[in-house]
Write a structure and sequence with these properties.
single chain, Rossmann fold, Four Helix Bundle (Hemerythrin (Met), subunit A), five-stranded mixed sheet, globular, binds zinc ion
């Protein structure tokens, strides 16, 4: 059975043909670690995770690589504002990023590359671009000449850029981010400048073409090529990266290597919050920790995302996600009630494979699970085995669900409804922070819902009252 992928480059669904039989190389733009990631960022990372898991389910050997953007305009600006070094700032947010990934059950990509560890690769690529005449020096940095790139803007469907304009006359942009309406020569390298001062010193590296630091776009080109080769199978990211970031990645990489950079581009749709675009100025940025405060577990958020196709724009509201959480809890309850010892049902497994192979159609796969749960012709033990098999792709953590220990009466963590677990975790955190009033209030809320929580050396134990 073929795997079909909607490729942004062609705008069509295409049959996936790997560069090497049985293998998939994937690159995903990672987080810019100047702040905690928001739920929109994690929608994209869950999409990447689902794609990787689908290929693995289908028997491919996958190499997934991502990056950490730990030097760019935003990170340097923030470290200066916080009067801290770039290193201290970026490592702090990187640690939080990894924690959020884990709570969402996102598999850690096989390689996670920090931009600051690969400046040498970026310098090499820029040197090649200078040698080949695709880049030129200016007063404040080295720029990429988009007029020299025959296919520039194809991914973003830009009109053909005039190749006749003289490099020195064409407009240039030193900022990493700019609008599609005005494509311009962009900075590959920014010469050392006081504007790049973090909380301690000027951020800068030695380079044969002058001391300075890389622009954001060259980072991904250099790291993806270094880790996965000149041509890679799949590149993932959110739609807002199509221009300028991915457009510039293609231009740089293809100019440097003379080869096609990426065969399949996959872009995840946006997420609104209460019908509005998430933005710092509106103050409606939602983080994973904010979900827990709403008694939404990270895995319920993941379940909710699986009920929409990655191509569909979604609207986050606490009510919508809580409704999904309710369904997820019902499914978890059904799962733990089903006995072990069954085998995955072949008919359902075939249907499941067909859905996930058709451009990663998770909504249909989730609907299939509910069909299975209600199917009287399949034994409960087989239902359990089938769901566990599907969860290799869903990543909802069913493998971690345990049985009730009848002797001790202690419920294993996942047998407790998810909202109770979230409350108990919040209480444990309040206790550790010595916020006794908050801890007591949370205990009262847990008891109101019919559970008790006790602390032990191993952690806390939740019991049904
Ligand atoms: Zn990138």
């Amino acid at each position: 059975m073929d795997i079909l992928i909607h490729n942004t480059l062609s705008g069509k669904k295409e049959v996936f043909k790997p560069l090497v039989k049985g293998r998939v190389s994937m690159y995903q733009c990672g987080l810019t670690v100047y702040d905690t990631g928001h739920i929109g960022n994690f929608r994209t990372f869950i999409m990447g995770d689902i794609i990787r898991r689908t290929f693995e389910y289908r028997g491919y050997f996958v190499t997934q690589v991502t990056n950490i953007t730990d030097v760019d305009d935003k990170t340097i600006r923030r470290s200066r504002e916080e009067k801290t070094s770039l290193l201290e700032l970026t490592r702090r947010y990187e640690a939080l990023y990894f924690e959020d990934m884990e709570s969402l059950n996102i598999l850690m990509p096989h390689r996670v590359l920090r931009a600051t560890d690969h400046v040498k690769d970026m310098i090499e690529m820029i040197s090649t671009l200078l040698e080949k005449g695709f880049a030129y020096p200016s007063k404040d940095g080295i720029y990429f000449s988009i007029g020299k790139s025959a296919e520039y803007g194809a991914l973003a469907r830009l009109d053909k850029i005039s190749a006749t304009a003289n490099d020195m006359l064409r407009e240039r942009i030193s900022n990493d981010e700019y609008e599609k309406e005005n494509p311009r020569d962009f900075a590959l390298w920014k010469f050392e400048s006081d504007a790049d001062r973090d909380g301690e010193k000027i951020v800068s590296w030695d380079a044969p073409f002058g001391k300075g630091r890389p622009g954001w776009h060259i980072e991904c080109s250099a790291m993806a090529t270094r880790a996965l080769g000149d041509t890679i199978d799949i590149h993932t990211g959110a739609t807002d990266l199509i221009f300028p970031h991915h457009t510039n990645e293609i231009a740089q990489s293809e100019a440097a290597t003379g080869k096609r950079f990426v065969n399949y581009w996959i872009h995840g749709a946006f997420m609104n919050v209460n019908d509005a675009k998430m933005s710092k100025s509106k103050g409606n940025f939602i983080k994973i920790a904010d979900l827990e405060a709403e008694t939404i577990s990270p895995l319920s958020f993941r379940y909710w995302l699986l009920t929409s196709h990655y191509h569909t724009q979604v609207n986050f509201t606490a009510d919508a996600v809580k409704a999904a959480q309710h369904a997820f809890i019902r499914l978890a309850e059904a799962y733990v009630s089903w006995p072990e010892g069954g085998a995955a049902d072949a008919t359902y497994a075939d249907k499941f494979s067909a859905f996930i192979s058709d451009d990663f159609d998770m909504p249909k796969a989730i609907a299939l699970v509910w069909e299975l749960a209600k199917d009287k012709k399949v034994s409960d033990a087989d239902k359990r085995a089938t769901l566990l098999d599907f969860d290799r792709v869903f990543g909802l953590g069913f493998d971690a669900l345990l049985h009730v220990d009848q002797d001790s009466g202690i419920l294993a963590p996942a047998d407790v409804p998810i909202e109770i677990q979230v409350l108990a975790e919040a209480r444990d955190e309040a206790r550790k922070a010595k916020d006794w009033a908050k801890a007591d209030a949370l205990r009262a809320e847990i008891e109101e819902r019919g559970y008790s929580v006790q602390d032990s050396d191993a952690g806390f134990v939740i019991r049904e009252l």
